[in-house]
Design brief:
With 351 residues, the chain is an all-beta fold. The chain contains no helices and 29 strands. Helices cover 0% and strands 46% of the residues. The strands form 7 sheets. The protein has a 6-stranded antiparallel sheet, with no helix packed on it. The chain has a 5-stranded mixed sheet with strand order 3-17-15-10-11, with no helix packed on it. Strand 1 and strand 2 form a beta hairpin.
Length: 351
C-alpha cells in the first residue's frame, strides 16, 4: 500500500483515500472553500454524467464517474442507526457514481465529505458525509486493489424543496491540471437530474425539482411522510361511544384508520400524537383528536417500530352530526426531524 507523508485523508469528496497511519506532527487538511457568493470561483474543470475522469487531491489518483442524480422525498439510509429524511421544507438529491483505483498501489476508501451542491439561489450545501454501496447496508471502508472499484456508490444532500440544483462540485481537481475542484453543471443533457415523481412533484416547475407542500391524497394509497410511510385505510362516521370516550347527543366520531411503516433501517418511536389530523367542515376546522388502537378501544400511546415494521391506529375526531364534511388533512410530526407534508383527503362523501 502506498504511504503518504502525513495522515490527512486524500478526499474523494466525502470519500477518504487513506494510505498511511497518522504522523505525530500531522497537519489537518481542510476542505477548500469551493464557493462563496460574490467572489470568483475556484479554478476547476467541468464534467459530464457517464464520463470517467481521473481526479486527485494532491495524493493518489482515483477514477471517478458520476452516473446519475435524482430528487426524492424518500429517506436516505446510510446504515442501521444513520439516516437522513426530507420534510416539508426540503427534498434530497441522491447521487450515484463509480470509483476505481488506477494506481499501482492499494487505496483505502472510506466515507467522508465528497460533494457540495449549489441551488438556484447560489446557496451552497454540503453532502451527507456518508456514502455506501447501493447493494450494502454499511458505509464505505475498504481497501481497493489496483484496478478494483465499485459501480454502485451513492451519496445524498439535503436541498430546498423548491427549485433545482444547478451545480454539483467535487472537492478534487482533474489529474494533470492545477484545478482544485471539479464541477457538473446541471439541467442540460447529459447532466439531467431525474425529477420528483407524482404526487409530490409540482408540475408547474418544468424541471421537476419542486416538491409540493400539500399532497392531494387518496384513501388506500401509501405515501412517504419523512421517516415513515403512511396510508389512510378507511374513514367512517360512528355515532356511538368508543372505549371510554363518550359523545354528546348531537355528536359523532369521524374515525380515520391509519397505517404507519418505519422506512428507516433503525428503530423509530412512533408516538400517539405523531399523526396530526385537521378535519375541515363547511363552517369550521377541527384539530383536536383522540388516538386509539386499530382493533381495540384502548388509548394508543405509542410504540417503537423496527425498520420496516408497521402499526395501525384510529384517529377519532369529534364532530357535530349536522356538520358537512369537506377534507381531512393528516401531517406526520417527526419531532426534531421536522414536519411532513400535508396529506389532504376528500371526505365529503363520508356518511
Amino acid at each position: 500500500m502506498k504511504r503518504l507523508p502525513f495522515a490527512t485523508p486524500i478526499l474523494l469528496g466525502a470519500i477518504a483515500v487513506i494510505a498511511a497511519a497518522p504522523a505525530a506532527n500531522a497537519v489537518v487538511k481542510k476542505h477548500p472553500k469551493v464557493y462563496t457568493k460574490g467572489t470568483t470561483q475556484m479554478p476547476g474543470g467541468y464534467g459530464r454524467f457517464g464520463q470517467t475522469y481521473t481526479l486527485n487531491d494532491g495524493g493518489p489518483l482515483i477514477n471517478f464517474t458520476l452516473m446519475s442524480a435524482e430528487y426524492t422525498v424518500e429517506p436516505y439510509n446510510f446504515r442501521p442507526g444513520t439516516f437522513i429524511n426530507s420534510n416539508v421544507s426540503n427534498k434530497l438529491l441522491v447521487i450515484h457514481y463509480r470509483i476505481k483505483n488506477p494506481n499501482k498501489d492499494d487505496l483505502y476508501v472510506s466515507a467522508g465529505g465528497l460533494f457540495q451542491v449549489v441551488d438556484s439561489n447560489n446557496n451552497t450545501t454540503n453532502d451527507s458525509g456518508d456514502q455506501r454501496r447501493l447493494s450494502e447496508k454499511v458505509g464505505l471502508g475498504i481497501k481497493l486493489k489496483p484496478g478494483q472499484g465499485f459501480d454502485d456508490v451513492i451519496d445524498c444532500a439535503v436541498v430546498p424543496a423548491h427549485g433545482p440544483i444547478n451545480k454539483i462540485i467535487i472537492e478534487m481537481g482533474q489529474a494533470g491540471t492545477n484545478d482544485r475542484v471539479f464541477r457538473y453543471n446541471l439541467g442540460t443533457a447529459p447532466n439531467v437530474v431525474k425529477p420528483l415523481t407524482a404526487p409530490f412533484v409540482d408540475t408547474s416547475d418544468k424541471s421537476g425539482a419542486t416538491a409540493l407542500d400539500t399532497i392531494s391524497a387518496v384513501v388506500g394509497k401509501t405515501y412517504s411522510a419523512g421517516v415513515c410511510s403512511m396510508s389512510l385505510d378507511n374513514v367512517a362516521l360512528q355515532p356511538t361511544q368508543i372505549g371510554n370516550h363518550p359523545l354528546d347527543a348531537n355528536q359523532q366520531f369521524l374515525v380515520a384508520t391509519v397505517t404507519v411503516t418505519n422506512l428507516t433501517w433503525t428503530s423509530w418511536y412512533h408516538s400517539g400524537d405523531s399523526l396530526r389530523p385537521t378535519l375541515k367542515t363547511d363552517d369550521d376546522k377541527i384539530t383536536s383528536d383522540i388516538v386509539v388502537k386499530a382493533k381495540h378501544d384502548d388509548n394508543y400511546d405509542g410504540v417503537s417500530l423496527d425498520g420496516g415494521e408497521s402499526i395501525s391506529e384510529r384517529l377519532l375526531v369529534t364532530v357535530p352530526k349536522d356538520a358537512s364534511l369537506k377534507t381531512l388533512t393528516i401531517r406526520y410530526d417527526m419531532g426534531d426531524n421536522g414536519q411532513s407534508r400535508d396529506f389532504v383527503y376528500d371526505v365529503s362523501g363520508v356518511k
